[in-house]
Amino acid sequence: xxxxxxxxxxxxxxxxxxxxxxxxxxxxxxxxxxxxxxxxxxxxxxxxxxxxxxxxxxxxxxxxxxxxxxxxxxxxxxxxxxxxxxxxxxxxxxxxxxxxxxxxxxxxxxxxxxxxxxxxxxxx
Length: 124
Hints:
- The protein is an alpha+beta fold.
- Helices cover 19% and strands 30% of the residues.
- It contains one helix and nine strands; from the N terminus they run αβββββββββ.
- Strands 1-2-5-6 form a four-stranded antiparallel beta sheet, with no helix packed on it. A three-stranded antiparallel beta sheet has the order 7-8-9, with no helix packed on it.
- The protein is globular.
- The termini are far apart.
């Protein structure tokens, strides 16, 4: 019987905690602003931030798995294509370290596929 009375209390606590945190911020709860859309619609991509650009890597486009890499320049609100991956990859991981973008793992084929890929992109 005690468990049933705790659930409404936890719900209220979580609700008021999130409301309190949002109310404390000087800019309110934030807002969304539309920017230039990604040129090639894709899903299951990886992304990494490096030097003011967001690199969107691989994934699936309308034709299937892709090796496409596009970079979004945050300050210019502009997308550009960069060197493609050596092979198509989806569900991969990406991170930027030391001025480079690392792409690790992921699948080269549709469905449940795996790879031990470890690619490094160095911007010019």
